[in-house]
Amino acid sequence: MPRLRALQANISTLSPLVGYASDDADKKRRTFQPWRAWYNTAAWEDLRQAVFLRDNYTCQRTGELCTAKAPAPNSPVAHHRTPHRGDPKLFWDINNIQTVSKRVHDGEIQREEQAIPHGQWD
Q: What pTM value is reported for the model?
């Protein structure tokens, strides 16, 4: 009776199906959403740090201490309570920003925000 041979795994030959946005996609996003540049300013960095200090580096949703550096799950994220969607008044309002952990921001909060329809309606 012949022996069975083990099959070779072919998973390593598959191409990744998910990747990073192309440079063209990033360029298009910056063109249509110019407010994204606000996140790269010294004023935004100063505001973030002021929020973290005000909140004692504590996640305002869970009470978790946010002491790690990004991209760790317990690193601090400055989250806009009311999404600003390009409104400078909401973006720069320190009372509209709270400290949350990256885990909460990238999970729970993103699910909540994606459930809310947004866009320009006629």
A: 0.71
Question: Can you list the alpha helix ranges (DSSP code H) found in the chain?
Answer: 23-32, 42-54, 88-92, 102-104, 110-114
Looking from the CA of 32 toward its CB, the CA atoms found within 13 Å total: 6
List, in sequence order, every residue forming a beta bridge with 65; answer none if it has no partner: 58
Q: Return the closest-CA partner of residue 97 out of 60, 43, 62, 42.
A: 60
90-106 pLDDT, tens digit per residue, is 999 999 999 999 999 99
**pLDDT of 113:** 82
With respect to residue 2, please indicate whether it lies within any of the assigned structural domains: no
**Is the residue at 37 inside a domain?**
yes
Quick check: is 5 in a domain?
A: no
Q: What is the pLDDT of residue 114?
A: 84
> Please, are residues 76 and 97 in contact by the beta-carbon 8 Å criterion?
no
Distance, in Å, from the CA atom of 98 to the CA atom of 95, rounded to the nearest integer, reads 8
